[in-house]
Recover the amino acids of this structure.
């Protein structure tokens, strides 16, 4: 293992912490751009409580509402314009992963004179990784992406149907204020997609990281086991604040770097899913529930030992020597069954995606990122035909 | 769970990273106070390699050598004087936990006009938690305390034989440069004490934290399992760089906050051990190997379920309902056997401590910290007679 790690975000976690938003952010600015989504935060009172806390500390704000799921580049550009025109000195993202991601890219775009798309990974040679951004504050209303405590964001260029990511030191939020009460009203389907999203963050590095990272393996297993224990409780009773808190904490830890640290991982499942949700109006977590088991079945052929151990440690399956392939398959089946039990789709047909564009999806994912041999990085690296085969198996 | 978390330290981890010391720290100062211990870093060439890397980036240094195990307040005062006289603008701790802890307190003392002991927790009303410090850089040569990536330090007031701690935001190192190659020459006894130290950091929060922290539990178990898997490899072949790296990584994670986060834990075993090593010349890890199993047996009486689960998850013991006390005892016996197998003492008589001062040890630990009922905080809180009973059971 050889790596560097730093996550400077100040995490404030707990039921009722929304009331402390103003206090938590006052060191970072006086006039915030308040980025929100489709309006649920206004309907359920979260917005009013947030601005009330800001006002109590003399913090004023301008609004950037209406960030859509799979946030669009045009929304980032709009938000950047508002922040500049209003002279905002920090950006508060109050919403789900899309809102927080848009808030991050807006914060960087305000400090950058070119096209914000320059920052986003999409295969170009001269990408401009941002080095400056307004202070970002995240207040998640969904337990899913982990965006509240990391330095990455995912944006969709709606003109080209390319959905891709940016990761930079300056994008780490100064404060992540995480109040699980804000997730009590999240409907079951979105709750399930969030659980799938966080599990997939962890399986990516578990299966695509380097060998011999035993602590990271244990951490990953701990996140999955906790999500599988507490996720169903949050689904069966959305008002169970303890279950909501555990799921949200799991979602943070799943992608704040503590599990991935030192694994030098790739995210092939995410890369493929991003293409699906760039072309189709599906939730990211739903797409992952379809792609991940299919990817695992393909990858398990090349590393049955690793997948057998997953089956053993997560599902307590016996793992007799010489039967690794069978054990691996059983573990993947169990994970897929779990996802189905939460209400996630696990086949493309369930989200009305057919076989007509499989080659396009494969090409698009390779356009975003590929190794020197033109393959999607991961274990194993995947060629265009590998990706098509994977997607065909999930039809 | 309701908590705040922030660990801003930039971790640079990996074999060979010492060569990058100058590059990693150049942003923080130009003239370092280089704090070291008994001289092993000079004998084995580590010192020369460190200063060579500093020089390559134009960084000069003044020396503060000779920090002893269980670092003394007088050494902190001496180091503070050197740093002031030399006009140092950062402090580099190159050594074990004692050296790094001394470096932290020196860095804060330079910015404080009073007695450095004011900062240290020892029961007084008007303690001055430091708010300012020179930038601290840690370069550990031992895998044990985890001091390289946290904001705490332990210092001994040799005049009063009080050994206690300070924790503050300003004490977090700016950079922790962790090169497992530097631990290849650590002798077996110190290696074993380090393994015991890191395991005890994790058992403290596992058993003394609040209820319902499932992810933190899994993380703690992961650290212990990894230390028990890789520790013996590092002991049987000190030159096994992979084993050294895994043990060192475990020691960092054991106390950088990722396991303790949200648990609101106390550290009763550490509090009691600190008193022993303040009065007697014993290694901290050796003292922990004696106190921790004895403490666990006492605490298991009040919470057998919790200790039975430890036995089950760490040692794979069956945990039949209704037999929790027996399972708990077996788990503690297994941990003690493991510690003995690494060469740690597990009885006070092995380190020549008798029963003549048991009441004094108990009183001293309560002097450092106690709850409103005069008991040592933990689960369970312990009175003076509880602590005496515990120590007597370890004679």
């Amino acid at each position: 293992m050889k790596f560097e790690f730093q996550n400077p975000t100040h995490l404030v976690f707990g039921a009722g912490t929304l009331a402390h938003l103003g206090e938590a952010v006052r060191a970072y600015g006086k006039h915030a751009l308040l980025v929100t989504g489709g309006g649920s935060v206004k309907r359920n009172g979260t917005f009013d409580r947030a601005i009330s806390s800001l006002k109590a500390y003399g913090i004023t704000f301008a609004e950037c509402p209406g960030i859509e799921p799979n946030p669009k580049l045009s929304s980032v550009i709009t938000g950047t314009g508002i922040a500049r025109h209003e002279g905002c000195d920090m950006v508060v993202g109050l919403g789900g992963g899309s809102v927080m991601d848009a808030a991050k890219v807006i914060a960087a775009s305000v400090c950058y004179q070119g096209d914000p798309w320059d920052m986003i990974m999409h295969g170009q040679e001269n990408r401009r990784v941002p080095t400056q951004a307004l202070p970002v504050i995240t207040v998640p209303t969904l337990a899913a992406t982990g965006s509240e405590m990391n330095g990455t964001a995912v944006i969709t260029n709606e003109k080209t149907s390319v959905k891709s990511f940016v990761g930079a030191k300056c994008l780490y939020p100064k404060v992540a204020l995480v109040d699980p009460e804000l997730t009590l009203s999240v409907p079951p389907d979105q709750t399930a997609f969030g659980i799938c999203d966080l599990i997939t963050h962890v399986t990516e590095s578990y299966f695509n990281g380097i060998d011999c990272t035993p602590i990271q393996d244990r951490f990953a297993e701990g996140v999955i086991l906790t999500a599988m224990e507490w996720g169903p409780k949050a689904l069966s009773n959305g008002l169970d604040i303890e279950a909501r808190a555990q799921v949200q904490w799991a979602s943070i830890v799943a992608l704040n770097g503590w599990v991935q640290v030192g694994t030098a991982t790739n995210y092939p499942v995410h890369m493929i899913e991003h293409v699906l949700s760039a072309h189709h109006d599906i939730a990211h977590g739903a797409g992952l529930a379809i792609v991940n088991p299919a990817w695992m079945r393909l990858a398990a052929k090349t590393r049955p030992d690793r997948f057998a151990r997953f089956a053993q440690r997560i599902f307590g399956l016996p793992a007799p020597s010489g039967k690794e392939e069978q054990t691996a398959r059983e573990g993947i089946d169990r994970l897929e069954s779990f996802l189905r039990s939460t209400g996630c789709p696990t086949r493309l047909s369930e989200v009305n995606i057919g076989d007509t564009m499989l080659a396009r999806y494969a090409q698009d994912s390779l356009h975003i990122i590929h190794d020197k041999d033109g393959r999607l990085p991961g274990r194993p690296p995947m060629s265009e035909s590998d990706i098509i085969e994977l997607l065909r198996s999930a039809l």
Observations:
- Chain A has two domains: 10-183, 188-393.
